[in-house]
Known about the structure:
This protein has helices spanning 56-63, 91-97, 118-128, 134-147, 164-176, 194-211, 222-226, 246-251, 256-263; strands at residues 5-20, 25-41, 45-49, 71-77, 83-85, 101-104, 182-186, 214-219, 231-236, 239-245, 314-317, 320-322. The chain is an alpha/beta fold. It starts with a strand and ends in a 15-residue tail after the last strand.
Amino acid sequence: MDDNNILEVRNLKMYFPIYRGLLQRVAGHVKAVDGVSFSLREQEVLGLVGESGCGKTTVGRTILRLYDPTSGEVRFRKQTGEWVDVAKISLREMKPLRREMRMVFQDPFSSLNPRLTVKDIISEPLEIHGVAHGKEAEERVAQLMREVGLNPAYMRRYPHEFSGGQRQRIGLARALSLNPRLIIADEPVSALDVSVQAQVLNLMKGLQTDLGLTMIFVAHDLSVVEHISDRIAVMYVGKIVELADTDELMRNPLHPYTEALLSAVPPADPDIRPNRIRLQGEVPSPANPPSGCIFHPRCNYAKPVCSQQEPLLEENKPGHFVACHFASELKLRGIGE
Ligand code: SF4
């Protein structure tokens, strides 16, 4: 384990059983996460990108032990410097770690309890973990509201009295209330209007820098993670197919799936027409993934070996990992090409 890292995920698998028949026998598994490995440096932002159903949200939830992983390791370096495998510890041992690892949820409309005031929502983690009560908790709520750009005078209002962007700010304040070291943000701007997305993204980037947070930022849109992430991991049907520094991945993609995702990013210049790559077919089911390379039924560059042999995620250039048999031969288009 490297002490520059805060998190090391090794061969993480999260399979959900499929039950069939009157006896509800296990008839198969949905392989939502299938052998995911990556590390996260202290104060780094990793973007986790892919189409819906690719397993990116499940990775985040499994790291936080909202699901019990099927197998693999989730090594987290605690504030004390001690490493702990989150995948193996008991839920009782997990409780104090929840102060250091927090989640920001996708939907600011359903993730906030409509019966609680903003003050109660933000102060709840403080009360549960015995960090602050009463007046002290209220002062902390006011400070957090100011940090996320909300007026503390509104702390006795209810979530429905706020806009979508403001509700996501409340969710952020709640996540930050315990001074976490790792934030997993699960599509935090997907449910927001485009005009509000940039404001919330800028706020998150500012908070990440000011508070020295480490973050996993889950999104389905490369253009969203591009501005906030130091590195990006691209997921497809439960696996990471490419991982590199943001600039490197955007300009020099090595995986055909990344190339297709990049072609869908709107060009900065409105006069340039996007040259979008249309993928054949549908995303395969994680209950029945294709043989060999999981991307081969849709890949424009597939050769016979692709359906027979699975490519492993390997370092092709320093810091640039890809799972494709032909990564060194293909000449793929980067952003805006
Ligand atoms: Fe395409 Fe083959 Fe590379 Fe898979 S291994 S991405 S099918 S070229």
